[in-house]
Design a protein that fits this description.
about 30% strand; C8orf32 fold; alpha+beta; 2 domains
Length: about 290
């Protein structure tokens, strides 16, 4: 199947402001891109890519004073299969974990394992280790928190989300990550595209999504405490310890978000069919090169 995805983001800056964006499709999925635009900016400014310590592609540029827009659109091939489920996947003892995984056992800015460790062991310590324990954690987070875009707060930590019992997808992910790490199960934060494919369409405006990956057996598995069901068509953008590692936009100076639009949906075989939203005709001729 083909998935059409992209974004249009506009900001306003009082003065020229350096910005880093983490909005590139992850290298894991680069081979699946069938058509894409360049990353288009208006006004046009030079941009440069680099890799961060987690392997994510980051784009550097300087947004000029005034209004500034960044836009991207692509068609990606996908298997059409839901997230993998392996109920036999076992936990790996800490002493046997690969070196590169150990960092995902530690507390981080939004995932305060020291605050939730006792709770985690009380709730999940008696459960059989492995997939069943992780799924129990995800079930708990899914039922503990109520989702709502109006609950968004950029400073909310996992412990605060647990106490307040509300959040957006990043809060669901942070709480599940923290509880897994408390149980000595490596877990990392993921953001990316997730459309309403194979499920009823959500009438709310589309957004980027956040979930987690958990290391079991010999690999990373996807879990999603907000939706709590295998989903079709995830396209990863970036991974990190928590949201602090993968901000969509990080500006080194004040900016105001004036437009934020994301799209991701199943595309018919015609790769040149225009997206659902209206892209300015002044740049549409530059698309899908």
């Amino acid at each position: 199947m083909l998935i059409r995805l992209g974004y249009e983001i506009a900001i306003e800056c009082v003065q020229a402001t350096p910005v880093i964006s983490l909005l590139e499709i992850h290298s894991d999925r680069q081979a699946d891109i069938k058509r894409q635009t360049r990353v288009l900016t208006s006004p046009a400014v030079p941009t440069r890519l680099y890799r961060d310590p987690h392997g994510n592609a980051c784009r550097r540029f300087t947004a000029p004073a005034g209004g500034f827009r960044i836009l991207y659109d692509a068609v990606v091939e996908d298997s059409g299969q839901p997230d993998e489920v392996n109920t036999l996947a076992r936990e790996v003892p800490v002493a046997e974990l690969p070196d590169e995984v150990l960092g995902y056992l530690l507390g981080s800015r939004y995932c305060e394992t020291d605050h939730l460790s006792n709770l985690a062991w009380q709730l999940f310590g008696h459960l059989p280790p492995g997939w069943a324990r992780v799924q129990a954690i995800v079930d708990y987070v899914h039922s503990r928190l109520s989702f709502g875009y109006g609950y968004a707060r950029s400073t909310r930590t996992a412990a605060q989300a647990h106490e307040e019992r509300v959040g957006v997808c990043r809060d669901f992910a942070h709480l599940a990550i923290t509880l897994c790490r408390c149980m000595n199960i490596p877990a990392r934060y993921v953001n990316g595209y997730l459309g309403d494919i194979g499920v009823p369409v959500d009438p709310a405006p589309m957004d980027f999504s956040a979930w987690l990956e958990v290391f079991l057996e010999d690999r990373w598995y996807t879990f999603d405490p907000r939706h709590n069901m295998p989903r079709i068509g995830r396209v990863v953008i970036a991974r990190g310890r928590d949201a602090i590692d993968v901000p969509l936009l990080h500006s080194f100076g004040a900016h105001r978000l004036s437009r934020f639009k994301v799209w991701t949906y199943e595309q018919e075989s015609n790769l040149f069919k225009p997206p659902h939203h209206a892209i300015d005709r002044t740049i549409s001729a530059q698309m899908l090169t």
